[in-house]
TrEMBL record:
<protein>
    <submittedName>
        <fullName>Pyridoxamine 5'-phosphate oxidase family protein</fullName>
    </submittedName>
</protein>
<feature type="domain" description="Pyridoxamine 5'-phosphate oxidase N-terminal">
    <location>
        <begin position="21"/>
        <end position="134"/>
    </location>
</feature>
<dbReference type="Pfam" id="PF01243">
    <property type="entry name" value="PNPOx_N"/>
</dbReference>
<keyword id="KW-0560">Oxidoreductase</keyword>
<dbReference type="InterPro" id="IPR012349">
    <property type="entry name" value="Split_barrel_FMN-bd"/>
</dbReference>
<dbReference type="InterPro" id="IPR052019">
    <property type="entry name" value="F420H2_bilvrd_red/Heme_oxyg"/>
</dbReference>
<dbReference type="InterPro" id="IPR011576">
    <property type="entry name" value="Pyridox_Oxase_N"/>
</dbReference>
Length: 159
């Protein structure tokens, strides 16, 4: 793999690129764990509302079971070269309790409204506490762009 020519981005540029990806990408890998059953990972569609990630899955899923037992989760966008990792706490919202603006935005983004399905669904909101972003080895130093729920650079004006 060729890694030469990678230019280290300043933190503000990493933040801008990360926010753009969160706003436009479709899939995120969700990693949860249960004290008795161990780790679990799967991809889900997601919506970034500017402060948190929203996902939706079956009310009987392993993800929902794990989050209810252990709310700490990790999320990752699916590009292994342009890495974005989020760590935070998840909260479950049964479909009848999800905030309307989040459910409407999710349905608009994907053309699918889980509230209209026959089975029960749960919306999972993850508010990040830590965000890491890097492209290749030159960006490993300084990869943390959010710590303790605070971005390390001011948000771009268009956010």
């Amino acid at each position: 793999m060729k890694t030469t020519g990678i230019v280290r981005r300043p933190t503000a540029e990493r933040l801008r690129d990360t926010l753009e990806r969160l706003a436009t990408e479709r899939d995120v890998w969700v990693s949860t764990a249960h004290p008795e059953h161990g780790p679990h990972q799967l991809p889900l569609w997601f919506l970034w509302d500017g402060q948190a990630v929203w996902m939706c899955t079956s009310a009987t899923s392993v993800t929902v079971r794990n989050v209810r037992e252990e709310p700490r989760v990790r999320l990752s966008l699916p590009d292994t070269f342009d890495v974005v990792l989020l760590q935070g706490e998840a909260e479950c919202f049964p479909e009848q309790e999800v905030p309307g603006d989040a459910a409407e935005a999710f349905a608009e983004k994907f053309g699918w409204d889980p509230r209209a399905e026959e089975g029960a669904f749960v919306y999972v909101r993850v508010t990040p506490r830590t965000v890491r972003a890097w492209r290749g080895v030159p960006e490993l130093r300084g990869r943390v762009i959010m710590r303790d729920g605070t971005w390390l650079e001011p948000l771009p004006l268009h956010c």
